[in-house]
Amino acid sequence: MSLQLDFPAVLERWPSFLAGAVLTLELAAFATVLGALLGTLAAVGRGTHNALISGACKVYVETIRNTPLLVQIFLVYFGLASLGLKFSAFTVAVAALTINVGAYTAEIMRAGFEAIPRGQIEAAEGLALSRLQIYWHIILLPAIEKVYPALTSQFVLLMLASSVCSQISAEELTAVANYIQSDTYRAFETYIIVAVLYVILSLVMRAGFWGLGLVLFPRRRRLGTPL
Amino acid sequence: MQQNPSSDSIVSLRDVQKSFGSLRVLDGVSFAVERGEVLALIGRSGSGKSTALRCIDRFEKVDGGEIVVCGHRVDRPDVDLRALRQDVGIVFQSYNLFPHLTIEQNITLAPCAVKGLANSQAKDLARKVLAQVGLEEKLHAYPEQLSGGQQQRAAIARSLAMQPKVMLFDEVTSALDPELTAEVLKVIEQLAADGMTMVMVTHEMGFAKGIADRIVFMHRGKVHETGPASILTSPTTPELTQFVGTGNLKS
Amino acid sequence: MGGHLNINHLMFLGQGALWTIGLSVIALIGGGIVGFVIALARISPLKSVRIASAVYVQLIQGTPLLVILFLGYFGLAAIGLKVSPLAAAGASLTLYVAAYLGEIWRGCIQSVPKPQWEAAEGLALSRTQRMLKVILPQAIRIATPPTVGFMVQIVKNTSLASVVGFVELMRSGQIVNNSLFEPFAIYAIIAVIYFAMCYPLSLFSQRLERRMGRGRSNLAPA
Ligand SMILES: Nc1ncnc2c1ncn2[C@@H]1O[C@H](COP(=O)(O)OP(=O)(O)OP(=O)(O)O)[C@@H](O)[C@H]1O
Ligand SMILES: [Mg+2]
């Protein structure tokens, strides 16, 4: 086209960019919450003595971690379709992202569980806490606290990776950009703007997780934590 | 590299100030070390001994005062660090041998890289300094294959290979049990007998008394009492009396 | 067109897989070289160099690879710089990998204990000598497991090059699918091939990590 850059012509479309950014955050939020649950379950399952359950969890984690998200999204998309199930692109995207981030969460949580000293559990047993209480207070919460920085970085990476959902026409930020650039013929300006928006989103997410960490873990607040 | 003509001091500190944040660690420290002299820095934990020692080799920058080491104005920002460190050898409490290199390579590294010694010359040198610390047979061992005392002796040999004019020791035996301590102290004693100028931070009062020409007792960032080794047996300040009285002076 | 999966289709997929490996190697070498510079720049004694490299890392790590790819292919084309899909993908992956490897390696360099730096300094070694002879040899050992682990991410990330039309494994799968229209089966085959390339690397990285006796959680841009 021309070497004359014209950002205003693209920025005119800000309502579309905004809608895309909101959808990206929604995708990330759903997948983060669901994926955290799925991943924690998988990490627990991986640690059980039942060989079938722990084997299944291992297969899930390794399969997901060793194949591209793009392939996973298409598999979910066409897999559901071939079963005759019809879902919105948004639902399919959330499902695929959840399955994906669940596997990474499982690995991180497993490291967190392994970092809990045996003595802690024995001390709790000595205090006659129930198994469930021990799991919650002595294992799960301290494990989450230990791996909180790794977990939250993973969730930010998930938000960025959700750009791949543009390939199944979920109307998130990257899909919006693709649409706007084909409409305005200003691909360079469009993708620069979108890149800046993603950087802002990831900074916002990091700040949010940092604040959440202060609320969730008073000890971190007392002792201070780097962002 | 101004010479300081007024004295024959190898190391001299004058009114040295150093703070970490709001914590004043050195508060007007002055002392000097003459050629061939052994100076022992003693004092309670946190009194600033290590900091004073590290200032001499410019591992810490001072906030005020004057430090002259072998003619180098260490307090100045434009001090030639590499020249300074060729003149000064430093040995740490934690040995800090390079784990990926053999003892021989640990020793020859700096003479080759800094002084441009030929490889064969450096190897002869390594053999010589290792003999000095009684470790000839460990030439080709890796640091992890050595005991703590042997590692510390190898670290001393590594410093010696640079033929420094003054050696600094920071509690070089406090990570070792008594038997290994003795073998390291023996090496240092021999160095003193050979006339090496040394500044050592030590908790081994008996050793300090036996080897040091001068004692500097530090207290709260100041030189609280100083004098010949005899001050350990007849201290004049209550603080040093208490310090040597708390079981520090034995063996 | 149409019909069943045959040997020609499989050959085509195999060729795509080779390009996936080729692109991964390009990204690893390019990203490794630039990443090494980034790692050194991040700990430079010059403040401006440290800040510039930190900004680079923050920008790249805050942007999806897909957007970087679009910028490198469609964006540059729109301002008159037409590049091939291979060049766009290679360059984008290089910039992307450099930011991540640079940070991983900076961490490894800085995890060499501080006394080692001081001991080298005390022996009058220059900054370059300290880095080359004392710090880097130790850092490389620390860096090997996470670097091998990151190679898995590189292989997976090359799949995104398919969206700018570079015919690697993913794209060749889509092309085969265009004639067979068996998307689920074909993507399942693609997944298996990716797994066969990535899983050995994962295992190798885990084994290295265990041998080094340090657990390090493996952060991964999916
Ligand atoms: N890099 C640093 N940053 C902040 N504070 C420091 C630093 N190094 C030393 N300090 C503080 O300075 C004070 C003096 O430390 P220094 O290491 O000189 O004491 P020391 O006399 O050698 O004690 P010890 O016998 O325990 O080795 C201590 O309170 C210490 O916590
Ligand atoms: Mg000390």
UniProtKB/TrEMBL annotation, chain A:
Superkingdom in the source lineage: Bacteria
InterPro entries: AA_ABC_transptr_permease_3TM (IPR010065), ArtM/GltK/GlnP/TcyL/YhdX-like (IPR043429), MetI-like (IPR000515), MetI-like_sf (IPR035906)
Span of domain ABC transmembrane type-1: 21-209
Membrane topology: Multi-pass membrane protein
GO cellular component: ATP-binding cassette (ABC) transporter complex
Transmembrane segments: 20-44, 74-99, 191-217
Keyword terms of this UniProt record: Cell membrane, Membrane, Transmembrane, Transmembrane helix, Transport
GO MF annotation terms: transmembrane transporter activity
Gene3D superfamilies according to UniProt: MetI-like
GO biological process: one example: amino acid transport
CDD domains noted in UniProt: TM_PBP2
Subcellular location: Cell inner membrane; Cell membrane
Family membership noted in the UniProt record: Belongs to the binding-protein-dependent transport system permease family. HisMQ subfamily.
Name this protein carries in UniProt: Polar amino acid transport system permease protein
From TrEMBL, chain B:
UniProt xrefs under Pfam families: ABC_tran
InterPro entries: AAA+_ATPase, ABC_ATPase_HisP-typ, ABC_transporter-like_ATP-bd, ABC_transporter-like_CS, MetN_ABC_transporter-like, P-loop_NTPase
Superkingdom field: Bacteria
PROSITE patterns listed in its UniProt record: ABC_TRANSPORTER_1, ABC_TRANSPORTER_2
Broad class of where this protein is predominantly found: membrane
GO cellular component: plasma membrane
Membrane topology of this protein: Peripheral membrane protein
Subcellular location: Cell membrane
UniProt domain ABC transporter: residue ranges: 11-245
GO molecular function: ABC-type amino acid transporter activity; ATP binding; ATP hydrolysis activity
Keywords annotated in UniProt: Amino-acid transport, ATP-binding, Cell membrane, Membrane, Nucleotide-binding, Transport
PANTHER family: AMINO ACID IMPORT ATP-BINDING PROTEIN, GLUTAMATE_ASPARTATE IMPORT ATP-BINDING PROTEIN GLTL
Similarity comment: Belongs to the ABC transporter superfamily.
Function text: Involved in beta-(1-->2)glucan export. Transmembrane domains (TMD) form a pore in the inner membrane and the ATP-binding domain (NBD) is responsible for energy generation.
The name this protein goes by in its record: Polar amino acid transport system ATP-binding protein
Organism: Bradyrhizobium shewense
From TrEMBL, chain C:
Gene Ontology biological process terms from the UniProt entry: amino acid transport
Ranges in coiled-coil conformation: none
Recorded superkingdom: Bacteria
Presence of the UniProt keyword Cell membrane in the record: yes
UniProt keyword list: Cell membrane, Membrane, Transmembrane, Transmembrane helix, Transport
Gene Ontology molecular-function annotations: transmembrane transporter activity
Subcellular location(s) of the protein: Cell inner membrane; Cell membrane
Domain ABC transmembrane type-1: 17-205
One annotated Gene Ontology cellular component of this protein: ATP-binding cassette (ABC) transporter complex
Transmembrane segments: 17-41, 53-76, 184-204
Membrane topology: Multi-pass membrane protein
Keyword Membrane: yes
NCBIfam families according to UniProt: HEQRo_perm_3TM
Similarity annotation: Belongs to the binding-protein-dependent transport system permease family. HisMQ subfamily.
PANTHER family in the cross-refs: BLR6398 PROTEIN, MEMBRANE COMPONENT OF AMINO ACID ABC TRANSPORTER
Name the record gives this protein: Polar amino acid transport system permease protein
